Every structure is written in C-alpha cells, then in structure tokens.
Amino acid sequence: MDITIQTYNGLTVVVAQGLLSESTFSEVNEKVRNAPTENTKQVWLDCTHLHRVQLTQTCFSSFISELLQLRRQGIEVVLFGVSGHTQHLLRLLHLEKMFRQVPTLEDAYLLINQPQGNSEIEVSGPNQNLAVA
Hints:
alpha/beta
C-alpha cells in the first residue's frame, strides 16, 4: 500500500494505492489528522484490488464502515478502479451516491477543480459504465 498526501489550493488529498489492509485506514486517518485544519480534505482509495480484501483479514463490511467513518469526519471519499461487482454491492447498500467513483486515478485528478455537486466527467474505454456520483 502506497499512501501519499498532496495539497492543491486549500485541498488536502490523501491517496491510497494498492491492496487495502486493516492498517490502511489507520495510516489514512493519521495523514488526514496531520493535514492543515483549514483545508478541505479528500481521501482517494484504490479499489482495483478490492476483490482480494478478504485475504487481508478485512471484509467488505469493515471497508464500508471505514468509508462511513471518513464521511462522518467531513472527509469526501473518492473511489477509483471500482469493479462492476463492487458497484453492484454499493448499489445494494444504497451507498453508490455517497462516494464519488471514477474509473482511474487520473480521472480523480480531473475532479480537483470541479465542485462536489458537478462531478460528471466524460468516460471512454472499456469502463464506460462506471458512474460518477
């Protein structure tokens, strides 16, 4: 897991790439706590390996619980690399609109200058059915 922190004009972005594990969210929370308090905060999570989350002693419900905890702290969560299966699970839980979803990390960077309510981006390629909430 690679976790980086970046700042853009009053926005602090914590990016977690790679296989998620139980320690990922502890590390992400620590980075968010250390960010300037006046900044808006976002966490971008790589979901390309989410199908393997059971191998890391973390189940999908724990993953969702951690996402909801971030939201309760006022942190916007952006999920990238979300599979069709994970999208389906988010829809079943009625959470698909609670977290922004983009096909790739590069698409997440396109959101930086867009207000939260206007997050539609043009998606082309094999993942065209990915929703941007």
